Amino acid sequence: MRSGGMPAGSSRVLRLDPFALPVQFAANDPAADERIRHVELHRERVVLRRAVRGMLMALNMPISAFTGVAIRMIPREGASDAAIAVILEHQDPSLAVPLHVATETDEVMAQWHAWGNVLGLPLLVTAADGELCEPFVRLGRLRVERPRPRRRRRTALKFRRPSISMRRAPGKITAVTPVHRGEREIIARN
Predict the structure, then answer these.
(1) Bigger pLDDT: 148 or 160?
(2) Sequence ranges of the domains in the chain
(3) What is the pLDDT of residue 9?
(4) What share of the chain is helix, strand, coil (3-state, %, to 5)?
(5) How many CB atoms lie within 10 A of CB 119?
(6) Percentage of the chain with pLDDT > 90?
(7) Are 83 and 74 in contact (CB under 8 A)?
(8) What is the DSSP annotation of 126-182?
(9) Which of 2, 113, 161, 176 has its CA 20 to 30 A from that of 128?
(10) 178 upstream amide cis, omega within 30 of 0
(11) Distance separating alpha carbons of residues 124 and 161, to the nearest angstrom
């Protein structure tokens, strides 16, 4: 029995919404009968259904079994243009799941980051030697970046003191500072 979800994808490009999970779609699978497999993608698991030599099989894998979300170039084949794909990568290449395939590069980076955030997996790129690597330094699940300068306007003390005192230097009383004592008024009148 299949769980609820929306069918997605088309014949030329594949555009799945990472914020509308669970989703069901069909993907190409050269090892399967009829060269197609059905994929159910949830936030915590992936179910791959395919038939190989007449035997039906369903693989139910947790998202943690995948290595990350990668960007790959798909070379030109025949009359079709070259494309860029966002793929949910697995150690076994036959279990990789395409998430977004497009011929234009406009929204590929945004989709790559969105899928990585939604699934909680690292972002991967293909290195010069063909291996997958992370383009960002990470410490566990935390991405490490250069520290940014502190913004003073969002501090906890912002509403306790006026901001004018941050801009002006405080005055200092010295021996030559004039002190007016015994006068009735300090203000001038015209």
Answers:
(1) 148
(2) 6-137
(3) 37
(4) 15, 35, 50
(5) 22
(6) 2
(7) yes
(8) E-TTS-EE-SS-EETTEEP-PPPPPPGGGSTTTTTS-THHHHSPPP---TTS----S
(9) 113
(10) no
(11) 46
Q: What does each C-alpha distance from 161 to 112, 149, 153, 156 come to in angstroms? A: 43, 22, 12, 10
Q: Residue 82 — very low, low, confident or very high, per pLDDT cuts 50/70/90?
A: confident
Query: What is the per-residue pLDDT across 71-80, written as a single tens digit (0 to 9) for each?
Result: 888 777 766 6
Which range has the worst mean pLDDT, 5-14, 57-66, 107-116? 5-14
Among residues 28, 88, 85, the alpha carbon closest in space to that of 64 is found at 88
Q: Bridge partners of 41?
A: 23, 46
Report the C-alpha gap between 69 and 62 in whole angstroms.
14
